[in-house]
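Known limitations

Files may contain more than one protein. Parsers should not assume a single record per file. Below, a two-record file is shown to illustrate correct handling: read the sequence, read the token line, then continue until end of file.
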Amino acid sequence: MSTVEKYSDKAALITAVGDRLIGAITDAIATRDRALIVLTGGGTGIGLLEHVRENGDAIDWSKVRLFWGDERYVPEADDDRNEKQAREALLDFIPVDPALVHAMPASDGPDGDDPEAAAERYAAELAAAARPGTARLPHFDVVLLGLGEDGHVASVFPEHPVVYETRPVSAVRGSPKPPPVRITLTLPTLCTAEEVWLVAAGAGKADAAAMALAGGAGPVQVPASGVHGVERTFWLLDRAAAAHVGPKFRSLR
């Protein structure tokens, strides 16, 4: 069951979810002596990281591992890289060990123009970051996801072959949203997190949020409908993004 929380505008959403993220990190460290967080890009996702930079002084960054849900397969210095945007918003300002920052490969890395090899490389990195044993994936505490206007999450797009992927990480070719080549965690991987947070702002996201929450469309048509946390799933929306959500979710913070 998803929990929907609505906020008056994008600024209120970023403040509230940013505070929630700081709390989730500190709680995970207090409980398990580490926090594993999967980051997202986009204007709202980067706004959250800026909020953490300004308000997260209590976080012990030596106990935080950071991952990404997807990445544009472009050169490392490209402004489209989620990693670059995250560094400019947060990572360049905090005392985080580079070994604990698990960025997805770039197109000017060792795999060159082979995103499939880059996806396999990231899957191996995830397995190495897992607890000792046979696990292929780390125990993610929170996966942050944006929401596309077409209902995509990470780089899992409606009706695209990647929506059927069962491997932990997949290359994406022919993305309907540029750039065309990407790397993404797959739906089964996203659903291994303790908590999944879908964060969206703006009227352009209203139809996608409503369709995903209504339950009538499956993950092939609306990938966002197919992601959920092991323990909790939160839809964190501003008023505009929640405009078409059903009456049972009409609460405003």
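...continuing to the second record:
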Amino acid sequence: MRIDFVSDVSCPWCAIGLSSLEAAIGRLKGEVDVDMHFQPFELNPQMGKGGQEIVEHLSMKYGTTPQQIAQSQEMIRARGAEVGFKFDLATRTHIYNTFDAHRLLHWADGEGRQRELKHALFAAYFTEGRDPSSHEVLVDVATKVGLDPERVRSILASDEFAQDVRERERFYQQHGIHAVPAVIINERHLIQGGQPVEVFEQALRQLAADKSGG
């Protein structure tokens, strides 16, 4: 079963959705063989260097008040805790550009370390409050999951994989993906949003049953 997980490393519901999806896959251990790939999506492709303060950004983008943002952040923290993901609301203060992180994730797929890097980037941003647009941060995070730091620096110092990432982004946008996370199973079936574990489990079981029955 192929799963394409379309997401951004600065999307909290993507972190929640991935934890839920992996928990669901764990419940089906031995029943399905999953081949997962992480696909790029940028929530803020025009975000400049240094990023933007979160409350300011969300207020400008969605017209929400600081109180509404605080309530939403607390709901996200609680949902994350339910699936074992830690959001530290105190450390995460800004929204950043994530394009370079997506370039590394694209490369890491071929290195067999994409899933580990995805998890590490989520933790670096949401739990540790680090800047995923910082090349120093990206080198450190990638190195910790077993990737070659010199190769990482070489990629970041160039435009390598930029065209590949933009092509993948356009592909999913042209196929109707305008919000994330988007979970695409066997390149046909779409599950949208950071769903509970039970929703993913039911969908995976149904698709596995349909395939075996067909």
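Parsers that stop after the first record will miss the second one. For reference, the second record is described as follows. Strands lie at 2-7, 35-40, 52-53, 94-95, 182-185, 189-192.
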